[in-house]
Design brief:
Helix content: 40-55%
Strand content: 15-25%
Radius of gyration: 29 Å
Structural class: alpha+beta
Number of strands: 24
Shape: globular
Largest sheet: 6 strands, mixed
Strand order of the largest sheet: 16-17-15-18-21-22
Amino acid sequence: MIENHPEVSLQVLLKEIQHLLLLLGGTAETLATIPLFKRESNVCSEELLNEVFHLSTGLKGEEKQFKEKYREAQPLSSILQHLNKNEVKQKHYYPMRTLSLRKDFFPTANASLQGKEEMLTALTSELQELTDNSNEVLVGNLLTLLLVYGSSVAALPELPDISFYDLAKTKANVAAILSIKELDEQNPFLLVGGDFSGIQPYIYQIVSKFAGKNLKGRSYYLRILGDAVVRFIQKELHLSSVSTIYNSGGSFYLLLPNTVTIEGKLTAIKKQIEKKIFKAHGATLYLSLAHLPLSKETLINKGKQSLSEQWSNLIEYRNSNKHHHLATLIKESYNYFFEPSAGGGNCIIDHITGEEILDPANALPFNAENKELKVSSITKKQIDLGKRLRSFSYLVITQKELPELSSFYIEPAGFGFYYYLLKQDDLKKIPTAWAQQEDIVEISCMNAEKQSGYIIRQRLSNFPHGIKFYGGNESTSNTFEELCNNSTELDEEDSSFKRLGVLRMDVDSLGAIFQKGIPSSKLNLAKYSSLSRSFDYFFSGYLNTLVKTCSEDQLFTIYSGGDDLFIVGQWEKTIHLAEKIKEEFSTYSNNPLLSISGGISIIPPKFPIMKGAEFSATQESLAKEHKVNGAEKNSISFFSTPLNWDLEFTPVKELKERLEEEIVSKRLPSGFLQRVMRHAQNAGFHREKLNEEAHKITNYKIYWMISYEISRLNEQCKNPILEIYLKDIYASNKQLMGKPIQTKYHALELWAFAARWCELSVRDKN
């Protein structure tokens, strides 16, 4: 029966966490101190467990033989370093320690086992606190402990780049599926993929005022909406959380049992999801949901089609569904879509989004000062959500409204899950009587470190606990105007260059990485899980640490997760942050074939942030399209000029810093910067062309003008940089600051770019 899914999952997880304890140095006496391990069950036969092991790993042989050989924990090899057939010069391994957002959790060349004893002590203590609860509660808690303590441990010596956590979770799901008798014999698995459309228009469809709170609230709302959809599917099918392979960035993947009942229910569930999302958001948001059957052979890449091929087929099928957006609803409710609405010109308009509020009862006052301005109930919820996102420690998810918990909650699209954002003190208010409260689905620590604890003790121990990463839950409360200033005091007469930088970045060619980055012969579901989680750890988790080190009070994280980010801040801080993200991602991945590109738009603080987001998207596209000597992407673009991180950005930045040093010290007049920019403007470059001719000087008179002006200027200041400038411009081979440079740009273009960057930087600091 499918109702056994959580029970089977639990038994596998119990076996796995016992093995983890032994790997960390535990003994039989250690296991005996944990009451939970006395729980007996015969739902998993030895034959089943061996088949599960084979399908989850692709390895032949009995599971116990591999476990008997694997008696000591081995550090996890970074999965990212092997992607795209990278020839690793020196392998990097995660340090043997609990999951952390600090840089000392990054993989390094030195495989250290020093933290093993500390992990054993902590894990044992955590397990001793767990009580014998329902299957669902225990599954959730064991998954959390495996995530925290098993994310740096290799699953097996034969699988060095798959974490113990990801393999354990995969095995628990595969076992639960195979235990169901009604499975299709040829294709016992269903691979389900969901992807939201309309995310960008939905997030940015707001007015500029209160944009910070609203952008943050709307982006996080989409995050919990995806979470609610996955929980809804699992609840309707009586499946546990182990069925989730990946869920982040507006996409999710599940592995489900393939039975006639489940496939029929999936069709009905798809309609329910479509109706709920349409009722809440109209046609703005759409979830494309698709599924494909998988054979046992496909899981281990022995079938007619490999797992990667079927994964690609699912993505293609899912994307094709987007072309039939709301087709089912249109057939069922033709009149609603094509007949005139009753409201007409009398409809109330949402002051934030500009959308019509068809139901007057759904129109709420925007603020107490002006009651004539109205917003929809969901917009009001998202604004309040944005306020709470600036500082919260726990996310509590329930299956019904619990007024005692908090006056504020948000229920995405009516899926029956309520999300409460709480601080530490709020959590203490949970009544003792709730010890057996089954309506609490999960209590998750946000961005927690070890010292704050992962499993909450005492009277809250009967609830399922999790850990989630979220970019910016401790962000500044500054306005956009205040982000541009070195102080929070605004001077209306200040003539300095106060501008916002709107930064957007993501990993280059991520879709191709998931489809072709891992050789089919080495691919399995656990590896997919490890891969997606590795990216999400960096962008959802570690990015919090990085932002704090780069000026937390002048950077505002709107969104970070999956493989992308959206951050607003003081314009030069965003450039610095983008550079640090690139550097840290390169260190984290240990793979030169993995790259990240981004775009920055530079706008006045009162400029509509939606337009700023559009401009940054345009800049990011320029970066993605940029090519230098065969090197694609791996670029940053601002001032409408994409620069390859390694070949162009670094030398241009060095030039900018040299110019700034000369200008600030007054060894070089600031007028030199204007001269350089004017020279580039009059040189006759045709940037609109897509060939090398676009970057050649066509107005040859400019050479004479440059020589004349620089010779006159040299009489005034005699700065060596003037001669360097002339040599770069006249050089037959491309060079910058007298050094050879690989670039498609003419040296004059790069000097002009550096001059503009320098000029604005000096203006800002003055």
